[in-house]
Design goal:
Bound molecules: zinc ion
Distance between the termini: 38 Å
Number of helices: 10
Strand content: 25-35%
Number of strands: 12
Shape: globular
Structural class: alpha/beta
CATH class of the largest domain: Alpha Beta
Amino acid sequence: MRCPVETLAAFDIDANEVEDVILTHLHYDHAGNFDRFLRARFHHQEREPAYATGRFMRYPRLSHSFEVEDICGIVRLNYARRVLFYVGDTELAPGLTIHAAGGHSAGLQFVRIRTHRGFVVLASDVSHFYENMASERPFTTALHIGEMLEGFDRLLALTSDESHIVLGHDPLVMELYPAPSAQLEGIAVRFDVPPSGAHPFAQITRFLVFTWRLSARLPVRMEDYSTDLRQTSQRQTWDLLFRYHKPGTAFDFRELAVTAGADVAFAVAILWCGPDSSSNPIDKDGFLFRLTVGLRKVDGDWRIAHEHHSVPASD
Ligand SMILES: [Zn+2]
């Protein structure tokens, strides 16, 4: 992990000049270094410090996500009148709102910002990986699974579509968005521009979005999907996925490999499909599904030129 103060310095921002810091929650990888922001006020949900100082902290299963010195730091800052507490959603500035989403931590909140391309949400830990949302299987660090699932819905409700959701821990984020400058390559990315169609992962993300829509309660229509996918899809093959990918059934990426050249790329995904162990035991056998995709760059965008599906995935 990089120190955020160093990253701010790379943008010529002096942490001591920062006036407002939004804490999405108080887990050790999202809080701390308070002493390095001498002037800042800290904005968070009231439920978070109540949880982090409350009765559940006697259980290491829950307290291990917190660093006790960070929690003491918040208490000290509060005595110094430098902490603002919110109960639910609040507008902090025009075009900048915070939204409570609980679940992963009691007082988790995410941030919504207006950009050139519309509202983008910075989800923090509301969903760790795109796959958590796609498969409706929350990350294992959890206080309340139901609230975590509702959190996925809230992210979707507050944006125009999935391409405006930025997740806190998914390495895909660094792949899909461009760096603001060559010096910041691998350190920071821009969210005011769409996720790149110039990277083959964008296509795979569409596939994830595809499975994600399948898992939602909405009836799925092929017309809703990207033209790239629709043009090359064989409806019969996708029907197989429609049949197996019902809410509650497994649909996990076991492997995903992408090899890209200048204008041709190749992606292979191995997915586990089918009922999971909580389904009817008679119907417990799922299957491995292999998706191989050949991509070609056309006018700067990667297009799926060929798709092949193997069921079961053998050899
Ligand atoms: Zn967390």
